[in-house]
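Backbone shape codes:
***
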Amino acid sequence: MKKQLIGIFPNMEKELVQQELPHFIAICKEEKLDVCLPVDIAGKYDLPSYDTAKPETLKHLTTAVTLGGDGTILRAAPFLGPLDIPLLGINLGRLGFLTEVGLAKMSEAILKIKSKNYTLEKRSMLQVEVWLGHRKVIQAHHAINDIVFAGSNVSKLTHLTVRINGQHYANYPSDGLIIATATGSTAYSLSAGGPIIYPSLNVSVITPICAHALYARPMVIPMTDKIEIEPCPPYGEILLSADGLILCSIIPEHRVVITKSPCNMNFIRFNEGSYYETWQSRLLRKAE
């Protein structure tokens, strides 16, 4: 049996994470569980390290645990999904739509990881590439929530043309455009008027941001459909981001290709409760 090695992904910008990380490490040591930390802080705790800039250092992880909020999960997912490493999110942030447990159940969660007393929930991801003619200028990047096009000047519209499976779909004069997964349907897309999608569905949501066109409405399509997006006149600077990480500035000659990622994100789940009850309570908490 492969020995368990837990990779801890802490958001060290949060004071609560700084306080609780030593406690998490101590419990793991007590339970004879090996752990490793990001290379920049591992030395402080005299523990082995991993470096997300070197994916080979992550391959030996059997489990990943994030300490923070949803943003911490989003930053970890592009590295963990391609390696098929299951992830547990411990919420030390504010909302925690993607996290599974809070601080009060951290010790219990570690014991369940040790005994493998959990289920895995598979979430689909999107893949984005940027092409300049026949040359790929941005390599495949994976996103669990969304791909976003946004103007760098908030007072000017962005102008984007969208093709689906090679067929022209629409031109969007808007403040931007969101391509979201079912998981990401409760994030930025929801704020922009998009629908809530059951998270296990393999669909993409095309949601314009404050569109200056009556025909521009959110559209749900199969995730297997290929989406191609290009700037159209009048041109302005457009920033492309994946799960909040800015990838590049889009120029008129760029073609952005969005497809279903070959990778999935596996989330560790303990709760057998109703999805509808869980998400309703989290949506209400978000509104408070």
Remarks:
- The mean pLDDT is 92.
- Residues 70 and 96 are 5 Å apart (CA to CA).
- Residues 126-262 form a domain with the Tumour Suppressor Smad4 fold (CATH 2.60.200.30).
